[in-house]
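Demo today. Your pick:
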Amino acid sequence: GLYCFRKHSIGEASIVEQLAIVTSVFAWLTLVPPAYFNGYLEDYYARPHDPKWDVNPPKWYRLLFCVGVMVGHWLAAFEAPELHRIPGGWSNVGVWILIVVTLLMQYNSTLYLAKYSEKVVVPTAVVQFGPYRWVRHPVYASTMLLFATYCLALRAPLSLMFVVAVCLMYYEQKAKLEEVLMVETFGESYLEY
């Protein structure tokens, strides 16, 4: 991890070392914060929660989203130039900044959500601080930013547009379902937010 990053920062990282950095960041971003805040790193069992807050679109819609994201990533791999032709070093500073912003946004939004929720999934108040001050759904936004960063790192603009479109369609539906439940639970305070 750090050794590969040091080599990358001076422009001497091989393809395998660059992939190790990107894979490590994506794995950390997608696995550790949710696992920590749902109690999997504290014990072997998930924390109990109210199933009322398990808001999901229909299964076919979720499956379509997963297939769309997977297809978008594969399209990016085919659209992108060969990996050894993508320059390393300081030319990727923008990509690294996006990765750091994505990590911070995901982590902070999960932290603020945990502060105003009981066991993360049962909200006790409308969260209006941290990243929620600027973005209504920062967890979804950081996931889209993660996918966008992948496409940007591969220099695949058409795949970027495809993946963002798939995410916007899915997260718009999911957010609408959640917002109905939030209005039902918190009423005027959520509408003001």
